[in-house]
Amino acid sequence: MVAWIDAARRDLRQSLRGIVRMPVLATVVIVSLGVGIGVNTVVFSWIQGVVLRPLPGVDDATSYHLVEPRTDTGLFPGTSWLEYRELADELGCFRGLLAFRMVPLYVGEPGHVERSYGLLVSGNYFTALGLRPVLGRFLLPEEVTRPGSAPVAVISHQLWQTRFGGASNAQGQTVRVNGRHLTIVGVAPRGFQGTVLGLNFDYWIPATMAPEILAGSRELEDRSVRGYAVMGRLQENVSIIQAQSELDTAMRRLAQAYPSTNATLRAEVLTFGNSPRGPQRFLPTALAVMQAVMLLLLLAVCGNTANLVLARASARQREIGVRLALGAGPKRILSLLLTETLVLGLLGAALGVAIAVWGTNALRAMPPLAGLPIKFQTDLDLVSLAFAVLLGIGSGLIFGLAPALQLARVDPLSAFRTGSRTASRSRMRNILMASQVALALLVLIVAGLFLESFLETRTVNPGFRRDGVLLAAYDLTGRSTSQAFTRTFAAKLLDALRALPDVQGAAIASSVPLDIHGLPSRVFTVEGHTRTDADFDQALANTVTPGYFAVMDLPLRVGADFADLKDVNSPPQAIVNEEFVRRYLANAEPLGRRLTARGKTFTIVGVVRNSLYNAFGEPPMPAIYFSYRDSPTLVGEVHLWARGNETALAQDVRRVVRDLDPDLPVYNVRTLNTHIETNLVFRRVPARLFAVLGPLILVLAAIGIYAVVAYAMSLRTSEIGVRLALGATGRRLVAQFVAESLAVVSVGVIAGWLIAFIAAIDLLASDSIDPKVFGGVPALLLTVAAIACWLPARRAARVDPIAALRQE
């Protein structure tokens, strides 16, 4: 053991000396590995936050399971409060079911109200999560038994620090929430954000306060009012199958007892990460793809580094021959060389950690999306650091193994003969260079696709007006549940906004296109279309006021706009898009047909042009626009079409809303262009990343090719001298050497291109493959490779024949 430690210490000391003797190569290797390991660690830390630690501050968060009711149409509407109470009593397979629901809150005195978010929670919420208060206490069970009996709240650790300075007298103070004063009874532990993935909450309020802070709410007594999420830990030795069986029995009993609300409902026991609602639906898949691409990037860096180290190793054959002649065995040589590459890998990992620290801070500093309290759950912990170290060790082994094995097999006698190399070594160089080029091409094609996808958002016409439109959101939750109140407020607001001198048009919609959440989908039936299978017709849905289509420059192909908000005589109306007519009506006359959705019947009064709804590049999607007059929503997105600079209208919008309701803040004010840019986070982050990494990979590939070709030319100095002495021209020799090297490069380009093309066919439709990327990237790489081959070949061809022959 002592001998092994001494040998390792000697190897480490000699490795450090060797690295110092090659500063340029070492710098290139460490920087390229650092970038590759850094971006991989950033993505891994994000995956940790989503998959391994989805609930910051909660121990063993992945052990929680959700109870999710499901309709016969496949939708997950959430649980009603009364349903939760009964399930909590009946489901003995859970240690304790807790319930929570996100609600917008308006905090502050009149005229100084700020929008925040909180959770309405069950009495056992904090205890079931195993949390302890930093200050004061949590909710008591008796505080969540009678409606309005406990006007109390628990606040977040962050709010306690920022608003109360971390003072102990915060407990007992009151805060005005939705017009009601609540007493602060405790502070949640540091780091705890709540129980919705990726969202950060400041207030936890007893669910029984819903009628008080949400004016007119009947959720405590009405089983049809849903939206609560229910979850808990399974009892020891209880499987998901057993829990599902017990849940099925409970849901059958509820269906029999309450057929009007539960007859068509089933329920599923799901892990927290498989939630059918919220960011869990898309984040794991998106992050897995990003991690795979980043690992591919690191593999390409390792391929390039292997070529550089191989060229360096070949130049050290005389040194290795001396060591072997003095008695060092192949295993000793292998140990020494691998130690050297492992040190380079670990130094690259150290730089990668520094890059990852910067990257995770940059992610946490990203602006909120869609006005939600989003907090990127990225943090470097010991697991992330271990991941970076493992990548460094793995990279060192990957790029160092081939050169080390080659040198460990060197014949000491032939090592002293200048220019003596075996054919197998030439094949090794060619294989590594082709592999490096193939990996570089794969990464560059992925980078090109991400960049092209992101740039598409700036050049492709989405089918609606995106310039000159200002968006501003408001939420009437807690004001009144009366549709008449909501409709009247919208009408007054639009009248006031349209009276502004710089406003060309104003409208309100329930959703904004190209939002990160996408437009909601509605199940419907339409007169004249029947299905022969058991599936349901579905279309995207948006609820809009009259004037919306003019503001968004969405021309009506046939029919007319919706009736005025104050019209009480016209029947409920709907407007559909062209794709709806094509898909469900076979282009037959749509006007006057009856459409039924959510138990209500609407008359189709118009057809509007197709546009983009959820994503750039999406195929035509059927869409239904419902009239705000018929189905007013509490949450509204104001759309203002400005005559000049739309941002100048922001203060006017706030003033108009404040005049109508001093307690109602306007939030998430932004231009439509800004909205689109902000919600393209899963295109923008990789695109900006690859905008830096793409050129870096191209430069590294050029350096690797140059190093290999330069070394190959140095081995052929005598041959070049002979050929020049016999009358060969330098130009002809350069052309031959470049052609030989490009033949190897071309093999790598073809292999990489085929892999990328086959993968793209599997993931994308064949007509979605961008010819500019799949044609331009190989051409660019071949051009760079040709230059990298030409430079050393041109220098080698200028050798003096006499001097070259003397070297032999």
Give a structural overview:
With 808 residues, this protein is an alpha+beta fold. 49% of the residues lie in helices and 16% in strands. The protein contains 24 helices and 21 strands. Strand 2 and strand 3 (114-121) form a beta hairpin. Helix 1 packs across helix 11 (330-364), helix 11 (330-364) packs antiparallel against helix 12 (382-408) and helix 14 (423-459) crosses helix 23. The longest helix is centred in the middle third of the chain and has 37 residues, at 423-459. It is globular and about 105 Å long.
The amount of helix comes to 40-55%
Q: What would you report as the Rg, rounded to the nearest angstrom?
A: 33 Å
Structural class: alpha+beta
Task: Kindly report the average pLDDT value.
Answer: 83
The shape, in one word, is globular
Largest sheet: 10 strands, mixed
The quaternary organization reads as: single chain
- Number of E-type strands: 21
Distance between the ends = 47 Å
Strand content: 15-25%
Low-confidence runs (pLDDT<50, min 5 residues)?
Answer: 418-425
Number of helical regions: 24
What would you say about this model in short?
The chain has 808 residues and is of the alpha+beta class. A hairpin with a 2-residue loop joins strand 6 and strand 7.
How would the blueprint of this fold be written?
Elements (H helix, E strand, L loop, with lengths): L1 H19 L2 H30 L11 E7 L10 H10 L7 E10 L6 E8 L3 H4 L6 E2 L15 E4 L1 H8 L9 E4 L2 E8 L15 E4 L3 H4 L15 E5 L6 H18 L1 H4 L3 E6 L11 H32 L2 H9 L4 H35 L17 H27 L3 H4 L7 H37 L9 E7 L7 H16 L4 E7 L11 E6 L10 E8 L3 H4 L4 E4 L13 E5 H8 L8 E4 L2 E9 L14 E5 L7 E8 L7 H11 L6 E5 H7 L2 H35 L1 H9 L4 H34 L7 H27 L3 H7 L1
Parallel strand pairs: 3-8, 5-7, 14-19, 16-18
Antiparallel strand pairs: 1-9, 1-10, 2-3, 2-9, 4-7, 5-8, 6-7, 11-20, 11-21, 12-20, 13-14, 13-17, 15-18, 16-19, 17-18
Helix pairs in contact: 1-11, 2-9, 2-11, 2-12, 9-12, 9-14, 9-20, 11-12, 14-20, 14-22, 14-23, 15-18, 20-23, 21-24, 22-23
